[in-house]
Each structure stands twice: as C-alpha cells, then as structure tokens.
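Thread: quick sanity check before group meeting

JM: Hey all, I'm pulling together slides for Thursday and realized we never actually wrote out the predicted structure for the chain we discussed last week. Dropping the sequence here so it's in one place. If anyone has concerns about the input, flag it before I start.
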Amino acid sequence: MSRIFTVFAAVLLVTAFALMVLPPDGMTLLDGVAQWGHDAPTTLEHSVRSTLGTTVWVKLFVPVLIRPVWLMPLCLGVLAAGLAATTLPPAESPRRTGRRL
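JM (edit): ok, ran it. Output follows.
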C-alpha cells in the first residue's frame, strides 16, 4: 500500500511542478477547469449548487477555484507522501544468531 501512495505522490508532485512552470503566470484553477470545456465552470457551479447548496459553493468551492492551478496537485501530493510514510511496514529487527560476543 505504501508503494501505491509513493507513486501517486510522485506523479502529483511532478504534475504540480509542471503546472507551476508551463502555463502562463496567474492561471487559477478556474481557468484550468475552463480549458476542459467552455461551459465547464458553469456546469460545475450548477451541479454543486443543486446537490450541495449555495453555501457550500460560496464557502468551499469559490475559495479553492481562485487559487493557483498548481496548488491542488501539490497539496494532494503532500498528503499522499504523508500517507506513504505512515503506511510503511515496520522495519525488521536484526536477527540474533544465538551467539554472544
């Protein structure tokens, strides 16, 4: 399980770096969503408001969508790295041969 989180963290951190370097400066997550489809932000807003409510859209989604596009993969990558570190199997203790020095 630890290897899965490690690979996932590596992919997300490389993605975050690429999104930090390649797109134009100041590109927000909303701009990135708009590149998927011209009406994607409107569809996202409508679906969130209809299922979760206006308060969730205003208090949770809008602050996240105005952040830089690279911030979301960076945060998820750090979380995955933390999960990978906490799910490591315990280190094996050295075996005793029965002889004393």
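AS: nice. Residues 28-67 form one domain. The chain has five helices and no strands.
JM: adding both to the slides.
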